[in-house]
Design a protein that fits this description.
By secondary structure, the protein is α+β, with helices and mostly antiparallel strands. It has three domains: 232 residues, Aldehyde Oxidoreductase, domain 4 (2-Layer Sandwich); 149 residues, 2-Layer Sandwich (Aldehyde Oxidoreductase, domain 4), CATH 3.30.365; 321 residues, Aldehyde oxidase/xanthine dehydrogenase, molybdopterin binding domain (Aldehyde Oxidoreductase, domain 4), CATH 3.30.365. It is built from 18 helices and 29 strands. The longest helix has 28 residues. The chain is globular. It starts with 25 loop residues before the first helix and ends in a 15-residue tail after the last helix.
Length: 737
């Protein structure tokens, strides 16, 4: 393979943090070794361009202009150049949730700079960027702001302290006579230096271990609604997603994969494909067959001309009915007890009134707007990887293995993600691009079609969730028990883990209601299909079972669903406040004629949320008029982003509740595009009313929070309207939409 002379990527150096205890997700930290990476530099008007200037986006080896003195790196997240430009390295993937705005706000608050002048750069792979809650450099579990809350404010305060010390040294005065203000250090004599004039000297000073962070009363930026810094580039088309990558001499690739999930090619006749215009190579890869051509359309047409005999494996007869049988049969097993309080079984046997119900959840696709893609540029001794990923370390490790290189020789350029939702926590689409680039000696962009993306997903696992509960003679809930039967997500990443915890049951482990006898158990039943994390993971399926069953129990107790919940949350004022506000704001108990209300509550991601769905049923068809949502997520960094994410989660939850479901027949996924995998459309969108409750302390998660309560709130409202319980999703399967 010919060697090509390209400037190597600059690696981030320094840092104030390191890998932390990974807890239950330590498998992520064990999956990949840490290395360096290229930087994706986005320059838009809000990021330091002149006012009114057209936004531009470029790939860069680092901050600063060509020929200029290298910017001083004060810590892992901050660079300051001599021209006073300030670059913040964001260590979480931007996939629409707003981290390219929220995280720099934390640093800017302590650094005392104009937030709108900051330049955003995606961070490379590095140990300073490990998310302590996830055990790796991972964007997921709605904890990006939570994880950054102390670290980035501390980074800003440390940099401010270094700059003050550098200025004090120049003036030969004590640091106490200096202060930071508007990206300058001033002294009590009226003198000042800009940050750019001090940065090089500041970077040479010892990093202070103990710095004082601003008290909440002094926040000037945190808690204010700021416009997103990445919006202008997305509006004018200059923002760079994975699909936008262009490199000199780049070729394009399409991949053929077995239509039966889990199948592999048995034989390939590529003669017709190789003779087609523009085709440069056909090669077998672990997941299928890749066609490389001068243009993507050429690669796609040649892929379709391949004559492949597939080995369908064990899934040739798999369908939804057989999956349901597998789960139903497995549910008879007691499974692993994951949490026990009191003796739920005994309490149910001796109670005045008992209850039992089964709730069923389907497989779901991620269906991100941007299909999977990856551009690889493999050379003799290195590889540059341009990819939208939520797992930089795992992406680096996957590329290194495919390229036959040490991980530290793989530079990961994190592109903007056109939706992640957990699909880009996987790295299955990366090796084929790397292998193609290695074989041809040029950069190769591999693009999955929408049909590839839909039919080769790592789907949200199906679940059977069986509730048993009991009421005493006064209608008080004295026992609640849930048995979940589902494939495991966690076991695929860490097969050696014997802990009964699994991501499919995570939400119920934090069951918010006060009940003296509680039981949670899990039976793992694989179905032959890879399953994965989908936005809200266990929270949406578990919340459907929890909140639907509570409404049914409230009726059995002859109590109002709101009052029934409030009784069990009396010791949690934060929770009761959110519930009461949702009830008041939605007009609970005062529904208009022909309208019906349903309630659902959830605690998750260290936040709490309550939703009320207002619906009507006309001629057997559901119409959703309004979703009222009240959220307490602690300290908000940017309320505008919080509100947007809550609205986004509601839309996501509506699509899943109304139409979401993957149909498998003969081992093949039947839904191939948005005409068969329905998403909510603009004319179907109900009114959404969001109330954000002011809070303090560490910020909670909000990216996935609002998804879970949507389905149970709607189904509880449906019962109020029709007297019929819906215990399985989607609602389209019941003829309601």
């Amino acid at each position: 393979m010919p060697s090509r002379d390209r400037r190597p990527a600059q690696r981030a150096t320094g840092g104030t943090g390191g890998p932390a205890d990974a807890g239950r997700r330590e498998f992520c930290g064990r999956t990949a070794r840490l290395g360096g990476g290229l930087l994706l530099a986005m320059t838009v008007p809000a990021l330091g361009g002149r006012p009114g200037a057209r936004a531009s986006t470029r790939l860069a080896a680092g901050a600063g202009e060509p020929g200029a003195t290298a910017p001083a790196q004060l810590n892992a997240w901050l660079k300051i150049a001599s021209d006073d430009s300030i670059t913040v390295l964001v260590d979480r993937s931007e996939m629409g949730q707003g981290v390219y705005t929220a995280l720099p706000m934390l640093l800017a608050e302590e650094l005392e700079v104009d937030f709108t002048t900051i330049r955003i750069v995606s961070a490379p792979v590095g140990d300073a960027y490990v998310n302590a809650g996830n055990g790796g450099q991972i964007t997921g579990t709605s904890n990006s702001v939570t994880d950054a809350w102390e670290r980035l404010r501390t980074a800003g305060a440390q940099a401010r302290t270094l700059l003050i010390a550098a200025a004090a040294n120049k003036w030969r005065i004590p640091p106490g006579r200096c202060r930071a203000r508007h990206a300058h250090i001033e002294n009590d004599r009226g003198q000042s230096f800009s940050y750019g004039q001090l940065a090089q000297a500041a970077a040479k000073l010892p990093v202070p271990k103990d710095v004082t962070l601003k008290p909440r009363a002094e926040y000037a930026l945190i808690g204010t609604s700021q416009r997103r810094l990445d919006t202008p580039g997305k509006v004018d088309g200059s923002a760079q997603f994975g699909l936008d990558v262009q490199l000199p001499g780049m070729l394009y690739a399409a991949i053929a994969q077995c239509p039966v999930l889990g199948g592999q090619p048995r034989s390939v006749d590529s003669r017709k494909a190789e003779a087609m215009p523009g085709v440069r190579r056909v090669l077998s890869v672990p997941d299928g067959v890749v066609v490389v051509a001068e243009h993507f359309w050429q690669a796609l047409k040649a892929r379709d001309a391949l004559e492949i005999v597939w080995d369908e494996g064990k899934n040739g007869n798999l369908d939804n009915a057989s999956i349901k049988v597998l789960l139903d049969r497995a549910s008879a097993n007691a499974g692993l007890a994951t949490k026990q309080v009191g003796d739920a079984g005994a309490a149910i046997k001796s109670a005045a009134k008992s209850f039992a119900a089964v709730y069923e959840l389907p497989m779901l696709a991620h269906a991100a707007m941007e299909p999977l893609n990856c551009t690889a540029d493999v050379r003799v001794d290195s590889c540059d990887l341009y990819v939208g990923t939520q797992v930089q370390q795992m992406a680096q490790a996957a590329a290194a293995k495919a390229a036959g290189l040490p991980p530290e020789r793989v530079n990961v350029v994190t592109m903007l993600l056109g939706g992640g939702f957990g699909r880009r926590l996987e790295v299955d689409f990366i090796p084929a691009a790397v292998l193609a680039s290695k074989a041809l000696g040029v950069p190769v962009k591999l693009v999955w079609t929408r049909e590839d993306d839909m039919t080769q997903d790592y789907y949200r696992p199906p679940a059977r969730e069986q509730v048993h509960a009991a009421l005493d003679a006064h209608g008080k809930l004295v026992a609640w028990q849930l048995h979940i039967t589902s494939p495991s997500i966690t076991a695929r990443f860490d097969p050696t883990n014997k802990d009964p915890f699994d991501s499919v049951i995570e939400y119920v482990q934090n069951y918010p209601y006060d009940v003296p006898n509680f039981g949670l158990s899990y039976t793992r039943r694989e179905i032959g299909i890879n399953v994965g994390y989908l936005r809200s993971v266990s929270h949406a399926p578990n919340c459907f079972a929890v909140e639907s069953s509570l409404d049914e129990l409230a009726e059995a107790a002859s109590k109002d669903p709101l009052a029934f919940r409030l009784e069990m949350l009396a010791a949690k004022p934060r929770h009761t406040n959110v519930l009461k506000l949702a009830a008041e704001r939605s007009g609970w108990g005062r529904a208009r004629p022909g309208r019906h209300l349903g309630l659902a509550f959830m605690e998750g991601y260290t936040s709490v949320v309550a939703q009320v769905a207002e619906i009507a049923v006309n001629e057997g068809k559901l119409q959703i008029h309004k979703i009222t949502c009240v959220v307490d997520c602690g300290q908000m960094v940017n309320p505008r982003i919080v509100e947007s994410q809550i609205e986004s989660g509601i839309v996501f939850g509506l699509s899943a509740a109304l139409w979401g479901g993957i149909t498998v027949g003969a081992g093949r996924v039947r839904e191939t595009n948005f005409n068969t995998y329905r998403l909510l459309r603009a004319n179907e969108m109900p009114e959404v009313d969001v109330l954000l409750v002011p809070g303090d302390g560490t910020p909670g998660g909000i990216g996935e929070l609002a998804v879970g309560p949507v389905a149970p709130a709607i189904c509880n409202a449906l019962y109020a309207a029709t007297g019929k319980r819906v215990r399985s999703l989607p609602l389209s399967s019941h003829g309601l939409v």
